[in-house]
Design goal:
This protein has about 325 residues and is an alpha/beta fold. The chain has two domains: about 220 residues, Spore Coat Polysaccharide Biosynthesis Protein SpsA, Chain A; about 70 residues. Helix content is about 50%, strand content about 10%. The protein has a seven-stranded mixed beta sheet, sandwiched between helices. Strand 1, helix 1 and strand 2 form a beta-alpha-beta unit. Helix 1 packs parallel to helix 2. The radius of gyration is 25 Å and the shape is elongated.
């Protein structure tokens, strides 16, 4: 069993004043019987309604409630990152402010954390959302993410998860990357599982997400895969494209020579030599981009003294090295 010292429940909020009143009452009732030391970190992501005022009043009444107000609407990933950065629990549990997540599922997630898992992902098996613009695109995105990442989860989009905070060390969130946290954590060596959780229909307001979000997820997935496989050696990525271009150029050139010698076809009548020249130019560009990317990567790591690895545990390490690990 891995003991949990403190739980940080983090809740991004954006224009949810109607939901917040119910959420605060629900949290008060739930936390009365909560057996763990806790804090609740609300992040107001630039709300234009009275969400912040309600959160501020709640924080004045309960010292375990903390509120962070962002200058403008940065998006859910940025709001979650702010909450994670300023939380002090050794386990982090995100919760949506729209009441669709059930706080009563939190103890079940924490039980699996105590059993030895580093990340427990919620699975909205019986999801209470519209099929056309929510459930079907989400199902496609989940299968695509599982295929590309190799991490088999049914529901990457479910906010209700439990993380050992140390597995999030060094993880930065951009775009819609918050849904990829299980992937990032798993690639860093975390033990990941999922648990079926309750999902409730939305009562107030409307969802901030729709079909337009799907293409963003695909683009973020491409970026994530690139960062995972090539962030420390981008020349391999660009060099691969360069090799394909040079090979294509060679094939077009050989084909044009074959047609000239054996078929007596005038080269002016075919675009093969043009294709060959274009692929050479593109190949050189990819090669140069790879070299530049490699130089940028080296500058990034060396100028900031960043490591290209993360240490999970250390035994009999010298004291000065241990203090460096703690500071990181």
């Amino acid at each position: 069993m891995r003991k949990i010292n403190k739980v940080s429940i983090i809740i991004p909020v954006y224009n949810e004043e109607k939901s917040i009143k119910v959420l605060l009452d629900e949290l008060d009732y739930f936390l009365k019987n909560f057996t763990y030391s806790y804090e609740v970190v609300f992040v107001d992501d630039g709300s234009k309604d009275y969400s912040y005022s309600l959160l501020k009043d709640a924080a004045l009444k309960n010292v375990n409630f903390k509120v962070i107000r962002l200058r403008r609407n940065y998006g859910q990933s940025a709001a979650m990152l702010a909450a994670i950065d300023y939380s002090i629990g050794d386990v982090v549990v995100p919760l949506d402010a729209d009441l669709q997540n059930d706080p009563n599922d939190i103890p079940k997630l924490l039980n699996l954390i105590e059993e030895g898992y580093d990340l427990v992902s919620g699975w909205r098996k019986h999801r209470k959302d519209r099929a056309l613009d929510r459930k079907i695109p989400s199902m496609i995105a989940n299968k695509l993410i599982s295929f590309v990442s190799g991490i088999k989860l049914h529901d990457y989009g479910c906010s209700l998860k439990a993380y050992r905070k140390d597995v999030l060390e060094g993880v930065r969130l951009y775009g819609e990357l918050h849904r990829f946290l299980p992937v990032c954590a798993s690639w860093n060596g975390a033990k990941v599982t999922e648990l079926e959780v309750n999902h409730r229909p939305r009562i107030f307001g409307k969802s901030k997400y729709g079909l337009g979000r799907t293409y963003k997820v695909i683009l973020d997935l491409i970026v994530l895969k690139f960062l995972s496989d090539f962030s420390t050696k981008p020349i391999y990525f660009f060099g691969g494209f360069s090799f394909v271009c040079f090979l294509s150029s060679l094939l077009f050139a050989m084909w044009s020579i074959y047609l000239k010698i054996f078929k007596n076809i005038d080269l002016d009548g075919t675009p093969l030599l043009i294709f060959s020249a274009v692929f050479v130019i593109v190949g050189v560009q990819f090669l140069l981009m790879g070299i530049l990317a490699d130089l940028v990567m080296r500058t990034y790591f060396e100028s900031q003294n960043k490591k290209t690895y993360q240490i999970k545990e250390a035994i009999n390490l010298q004291q000065e090295h241990r203090s460096t690990l703690v500071s990181r």
